[in-house]
Design brief:
By secondary structure, this protein is an alpha+beta fold. The chain has two domains: 98 residues, Tumour Suppressor Smad4 (Sandwich); 196 residues, Alpha-Beta Plaits (2-Layer Sandwich). It contains eight helices and 19 strands. Strands 12, 13, 14, 15, 16, 17, 18 and 19 form an eight-stranded mixed β-sheet that branches. A six-stranded antiparallel β-sheet has the order 2-1-11-10-7-8, with no helix packed on it. The chain is elongated, with a radius of gyration of 21 Å. The chain starts with 8 loop residues before the first strand and ends with a helix.
């Protein structure tokens, strides 16, 4: 949609000055951004996901940007977002390689910094090396689900799911590092690796149980939702990736990268609800009775990666045996 007038709130395409394109944001609660037709803001570029991101209008008139698990990321002023992020007048939204300007005339204007300027302002201070246990968990077939139930219901589902997941992780002494669309990255730090692995296992089971029961609370879901999970442990750098004086602590390292890749190997059909790294397996007893040995070709790895997998049913049996 192209509009020659200047609406009170709008999204403007910045990358093609010869063909100015403006999308007014009015009369709706949610606006979808994506590559395919049917999105409110259609961006037909290869680096844009089919359902890439969403802008949600709050009751007070503020606007919130939400990434929907896109492949190439959603950015606000050069910084990738992993959780719902408030927009302000003058913010630059990055959808993959495409830049958009958020304009809200009732808000004070801010100068848009170039990507290079923002990189110079970023503070990167990794402060310590720590042994961490990483849990990655996401909802299967979420892209297909999003297309069926629509953006507003996706937003409602994510609010419910992320809220419950966050409380579950916290209850079991973990930390939510980030939400990425329909996925969560949680971690447990410290030298008591066996205890941390046990808490991560319990968290994965709780998330699976809660997710499978969402159909009882949300009648419009077309099928019973299922999750996949991966666990990895090892050393990582913990530190601050803050910008403009804000603190944003996170962890980086191969242990995190492998955890994300292993989660992509989960499969309900193959009874691989959970995949664990070799380093996790080394801390378990009677492993062979519950976990099957696997070998995966993972992106970024030159050699196959050894791992172990099981169903959530087998995981529950394993944890029950450990208590007895």
């Amino acid at each position: 949609m192209t509009d020659q007038t200047t609406p009170s709130t709008s999204i403007k395409l910045l990358d093609n000055p010869d063909n100015e394109k403006i999308w007014p944001l009015s009369n709706k609660k949610t606006y979808s951004l994506g590559r395919v037709q049917g999105n409110d803001i259609d961006l037909p570029y290869s680096w844009v996901s089919r359902k890439h991101a969403m802008i949600q209008v709050e009751e007070n008139g503020s606007h919130v940007l939400i990434d929907l698990g896109s492949s190439n990321g959603t950015f606000r002023n050069g910084k990738r977002i992993y959780t719902p992020t408030s927009l302000q007048n003058g913010d630059c939204i990055g959808i993959g390689n495409t830049r958009l300007l958020f304009e809200q005339n009732t808000a004070p204007n801010r100068q848009i910094a170039s990507p290079a300027d923002e990189l110079d302002e970023r503070t990167v201070a990794f402060i310590q090396k720590e042994t961490v246990t990483i849990l990655i968990c996401d909802i299967h077939d979420f892209t297909k689900l999003s297309e069926i139930i629509g953006d507003q219901r996706v937003s409602q589902l994510l609010q419910l799911w992320t809220g419950k997941v966050g409380r579950t992780v916290s209850k079991l002494d973990g930390i939510v590092d980030k939400f990425i669309g329909d996925a969560v990255m949680a971690l447990w730090a410290g030298p008591n690796i066996q205890e941390n692995i046990h808490k991560a296992f319990m968290t994965a089971l709780a998330i699976d149980l809660f997710t499978s029961r969402l159909n009882q609370k949300i009648p419009y879901l077309p099928w019973q939702l299922e999750v996949g999970a991966a666990l990895n442990t090892g050393e990582a750098m913990m530190g601050n990736l803050g910008q403009d004086g804000r603190q944003n602590y996170t962890v980086v390292g191969d242990v995190v990268n492998v955890a994300f890749r292993l989660e992509g190997m989960t499969s309900k059909q193959n009874e691989l609800d959970l995949v664990i790294g070799k380093e996790v397996a080394e801390h378990l007893t009677n492993l062979e009775s519950y976990f099957s040995k696997q070998s995966f070709e993972l992106k970024g790895k030159t050699a196959p990666v050894e791992a172990y997998g099981c169903s959530f049913t087998k995981l529950k049996e394993y944890l029950t045996e450990q208590v007895e």
